[in-house]
């Protein structure tokens, strides 16, 4: 999900920045409201931001294709702090990763936020809410959220590339070509993220349920 500078046209980058703003602005208001209601929310949010930074900075090179795959951490973040707040955290994380680690670019922060912090987070959160609505186990809902959110992140990133670069190749074909550039390592990473998301959330619920206000009250243990 770390698309570099110079790959996407500037017009596309501007569109993705606009889409990102549509999620980040309400996310900022949500964060401010939660901080007013609970001062402990600010350091907790910072902790989640650090977790997303570390998780999504780990990369595994894909043989032959020249790309690399990363876990995301945003499905877990969306469950814990909410999807709109996760969009804000993701944008900040991607900025620092671009500046200090060379992961992604500055012009493509919008596009990378759309894939990791919006599509990945929102899809993972939606899966979490859907499964929990049937009172199925928390670990199952969290694991499926991690799996789906991870794969949707890379499907979205591949679609962003295909949309701008497909040329005379049919869009759907180019989309799948780009996604398979990630596929050899991303599919097992998605399974690993599912296990990680389930394990972390289950551990938090068991040991520190006070860090998850609203989750247990709304969905049950």
Taking all residues together, what is the mean pLDDT?
89
Helix-strand pattern, N to C? HHEEHHHHHH
Unreliable stretches? none
The counted number of beta strands is 2
Sheet having the most strands: 2 strands, antiparallel
Distance between the termini: 33 Å
- Over all CA atoms, what is the radius of gyration? 17 Å
Shape: globular
Q: Level of helix content? A: over 70%
Strand order of the largest sheet: 1-2
Tell me the quaternary state: single chain
Brief digest:
The chain is mainly alpha-helical and 221 residues long. It contains eight helices and two strands. Helix 3 packs across helix 5.
Write up this protein.
The structure is a single chain. By secondary structure, the chain is mainly alpha-helical. It has 8 helices and 2 strands; from the N terminus they run H-H-E-E-H-H-H-H-H-H. It has helices at residues 10-37, 41-57, 74-81, 83-101, 109-133, 138-165, 171-207, 215-219; strands at residues 60-61, 68-69. Strands 1-2 form a two-stranded antiparallel sheet. Strand 1 (60-61) and strand 2 (68-69) form a beta hairpin. The longest helix has 37 residues, at 171-207. The two termini are 33 Å apart. The mean pLDDT is 89.
